[in-house]
């Protein structure tokens, strides 16, 4: 089968989505730490902070899986892991993840 640039593009999108997911999780946690100094015992802030912390903690594994899937996309190996990384990229940073998932699923024949 002819090799296209779809897996390479999907891998780059996965890596960018994973990096943005990690950066967003870190910035959420740092932002909550700074805001905690100004609103230390506010009940609404504690609930809001818990929800945002949960979002940040759940984003990290998906972002890491997106990075791993991006590496497999670039190597054109292990299509299942590459697709899993693309789906995880949807959960880490959805605009890039959707494009990456479409490109990875269309290029299944190009993987070893």
Keywords:
single chain, 112 residues, mainly alpha, 4 helices, 83% helix
Question: Could you explain how this protein is built, in words?
Answer:
By secondary structure, the chain is mainly α. It has helices at residues 6-38, 43-75, 79-92, 94-106. It has one domain. The chain is built from four helices and no strands. The chain is rod-shaped, with a radius of gyration of 17 Å. The N and C termini lie close together (11 Å). The model has no long low-confidence stretch (mean pLDDT 90).
Instruction: Name the poorly predicted regions.
Output: none
Number of domains: 1
- What is the CA–CA distance across the termini? 11 Å
Q: In oligomeric terms, what are we looking at? A: single chain
- The secondary-structure class comes to mainly alpha
**Strand content range:** under 5%
The average pLDDT score comes to 90
Query: Biggest sheet, open or closed, and with what strands and sense?
Result: none
Shape: rod-shaped
Number of helices: 4
Number of strands: 0
Query: How do the helices and strands follow one another from N- to C-terminus?
Result: HHHH
Summarize the structure.
The chain is an all-alpha fold. It contains four helices and no strands.
Topology overview:
Layout: H1 6-38, H2 43-75, H3 79-92, H4 94-106
